[in-house]
């Protein structure tokens, strides 16, 4: 059996150089995020160029629901990531077995229920959104296939986050490449019905996502069984799927605030879009182009935030708070430096970059340049806040980051733009972004410095379990120990 640093068991993030480990862990996460963004852009291009604007409107409406579901599931998968990381950091075999079994059973059940309910309710959901009549039929066809794929998407997402909790970010990146590559290739083939494939129209785009997720998930599961991963259960171990009430309660109570945070961000973005729309299509197009650039500017900080959360969770479980503090310091340094360099490069190359999203003669070009000159700098403090909040969440302190997000977005950004709109015009909207980011980093730094996150935990300390008769099934969760040493570290 491989040691803790082996790929089958993930990677021990409680030892070794922090800076190097953090960067090497974050790079595959960054790659996976970039792939997902490229995938979304490529799918939109295929649909718009092959089927037209009504079809693009249809998938835009359907994807609002899809992204909302993913945002809600993100909180639960992040909670699972932290639980697994803390259990592995503590080298607690019984806890790790319970966490993996309960999380697996929980995600299979929840994702199946969401998929069935969403499939049946699709027409009503789209009607509530006010989907344009000329796009409604296509949106229904697209979204029903997406809901059919939802159990695969959710479970795949859970496994990716769980692998990162074990310290392995490379495997999720490799299988994200498989999923994205298949999705991009299958989209035009299933839309048009190339060769023996059926012509499915807009449903072909959604079907490409379903097939890509299915193939990637099967391949990932085969890989996990082949490498004897701690995340899979053998036939004799299926009783581990029985839910542990404490772990389920923790998944929900700790995951929901993180899910709600994604919803808060989405609602704020929708509100800002409505304010921008009031200035006409030229300004709205400039804003849309700028947002495309912002997506990529945020990625380094978001990748580092995911790496920081996984590293911090393992070190919290191991009782290495000194390393948690160092992870936070290195994460802040790398995020600030990396985002600053990226912002400077984008501003210098802005005339070239923005033309990737707008025609060369577009009147929106100078407006987009003006927007970026104001807004891009705000992503530096935003990235720092993301790192500090990631460290806090890794201990189980999930509510303060949510409160800080609500204050920054709904207490500062939206009111700032709304109140100053009559005097400043569109500039009120642009300046509201750095204003909100500065408040967010101030709140995150204040809680990091003075808050009680260091004493928070995802699960209460449990007394050692009494041994049971017979030999427990080996799930691959046991941490190798030297002869004569206990299998579980005590603190």
Number of β-strand runs: 0
Shape: globular
User: How many angstroms does the end-to-end distance come to?
Assistant: 26 Å
Tell me the strand percentage band. Answer: under 5%
Helix content: over 70%
Average pLDDT score: 82
Which structural class do you get from the secondary structure elements?
mainly alpha
SSE topology string: HHHHHHHHHHHHHHH
In terms of per-residue confidence, which ranges show pLDDT below 50 for 5 or more consecutive residues? Answer: 1-8, 462-491
**What profile does the largest beta sheet have?**
none
In the residues, how many domains can be counted? Answer: 2
- Count the helices. How many? 15
Radius of gyration: 23 Å
Tell me about this structure.
This protein has 491 residues and is mainly alpha-helical. It folds into two domains: 24-243, no CATH class; 257-454, no CATH class. 75% of the residues lie in helices and 0% in strands. It has 15 helices and no strands. The chain has helices at 18-51, 53-89, 93-128, 133-165, 170-192, 202-226, 245-277, 281-297, 299-317, 321-348, 350-354, 364-375, 379-395, 399-424, 427-450. The longest helix is centred in the first third of the chain and has 37 residues, at 53-89. Residues 1-8 and 462-491 have low confidence and may be disordered.
């Amino acid at each position: 059996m491989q040691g803790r640093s082996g790929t089958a068991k993930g990677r021990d993030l409680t030892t070794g150089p922090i800076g190097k480990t953090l960067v090497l862990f974050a790079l595959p996460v960054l790659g996976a995020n970039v792939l997902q963004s490229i995938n979304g852009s490529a799918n939109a291009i295929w649909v718009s160029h092959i089927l037209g604007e009504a079809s693009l409107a249809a998938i835009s409406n359907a994807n609002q629901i899809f992204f909302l579901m993913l945002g809600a599931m993100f909180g639960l998968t992040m909670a699972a990531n932290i639980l697994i990381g803390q259990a592995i950091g503590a080298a607690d075999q019984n806890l790790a077995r319970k966490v993996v079994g309960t999380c697996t059973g929980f995600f299979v059940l929840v994702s199946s229920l969401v998929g069935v309910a969403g499939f049946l309710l699709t027409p009503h959901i789209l009607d509530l959104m006010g989907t344009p009549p000329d796009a409604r039929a296509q949106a229904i066809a697209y979204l029903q296939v997406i809901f059919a794929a939802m159990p695969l998407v959710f479970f795949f997402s859970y496994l990716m986050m769980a692998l990162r909790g074990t310290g392995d970010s490379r495997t999720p990146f490799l299988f994200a490449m498989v999923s994205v590559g298949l999705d991009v290739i299958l989209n035009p083939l299933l839309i048009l019905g190339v060769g023996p494939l059926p012509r499915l129209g807009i449903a072909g785009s959604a079907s490409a996502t379903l097939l890509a997720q299915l193939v990637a998930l099967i391949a990932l599961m085969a890989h996990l069984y082949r490498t004897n991963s701690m995340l899979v259960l053998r036939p004799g171990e299926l009783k581990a799927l029985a839910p542990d009430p404490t772990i389920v309660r923790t998944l929900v109570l700790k995951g929901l605030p993180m899910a709600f945070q994604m919803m808060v961000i989405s609602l704020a973005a929708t509100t800002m879009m409505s304010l921008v729309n009031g200035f006409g299509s030229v300004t709205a197009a400039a804003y849309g182009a700028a947002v495309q650039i912002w997506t990529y500017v945020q990625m380094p900080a978001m990748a580092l935030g995911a790496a920081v959360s996984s590293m911090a969770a393992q070190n919290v479980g191991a009782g290495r708070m000194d390393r948690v503090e160092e992870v936070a310091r290195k994460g802040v340094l790398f995020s600030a430096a990396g985002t600053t360099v990226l912002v400077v490069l984008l501003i210098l190359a802005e005339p070239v970059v923005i033309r990737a999203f707008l025609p060369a003669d577009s009147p929106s070009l100078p407006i987009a340049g003006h927007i970026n000159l104001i807004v891009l700098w705000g992503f530096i403090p935003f990235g720092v806040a993301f790192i500090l909040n990631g460290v806090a969440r890794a201990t189980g302190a999930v509510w303060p980051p949510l409160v800080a997000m609500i204050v920054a977005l709904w207490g500062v950004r939206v009111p700032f733009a709304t109140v100053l709109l009559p005097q400043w015009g569109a500039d009120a909207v642009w300046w509201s972004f750095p204003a909100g980011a500065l408040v967010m980093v101030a709140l995150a730094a204040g809680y990091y410095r003075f808050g009680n996150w260091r004493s928070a935990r995802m699960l209460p300390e449990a007394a050692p379990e009494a041994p049971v008769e017979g030999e427990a099934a080996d799930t691959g969760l046991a941490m190798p120990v030297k002869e004569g040493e206990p299998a579980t570290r005590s603190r």
